[in-house]
Amino acid sequence: MQDTFILAKNDLDRVLDELNQHGFSLLDHLHPQALMNQLVQECTTHLQDFREAAIQNGVVSNIRSDHILWIDDALPIAQKHLQLLERLSHEINRAFYTGIQNIEAHFACYRAGEFYALHRDNPQQKNNRVISTVYYLHPEWKEHWGGQLRLQDKNGQWHVIHPEPNRLVLFQSDLLHEVLLSHQQRLSITAWLRTDDKIWAS
User: Would the pTM of this model clear 0.85, i.e. be above it?
Assistant: First the structure.
């Protein structure tokens, strides 16, 4: 059995069309259940290594309160998720000539009471992030637990995206978005598809 899900052509076409029309797209049931379980285990095993997230230059800001662990070769299961993102990057490059070369990624943990206020991942094209992705890997999620992604699409419309397990969200890195207050531990892999070739490590 393959470790990672290979995107069906109709799903890929839909994702590319939605990115073009709205600037974001969703993919549910992304990985086989066995791989998702392994990702959850790898993430939770390393929770003691997570650190408070910083905004830039190592400075911690009060607009976010989550905790993260950068993904490198010491996290082999997470690398399988990044392999799928690499394949998606090739298709996005082919469709939009974006020049994506690299992926920057970390595990993220929002504990009860944590959030990330309104922001852009690439404000005014000040960095090399093109597409942002969030993959939800907690085993279950209930609506009253909060933690939704609130996103403004490229047409100015607002959307509230629930952090359903095994869901991948892709969106343009210059779009305004926030993570609403979480009332339960919320786990994910956040990754950015970038146009530079810097080697990202923890």
Answer: yes
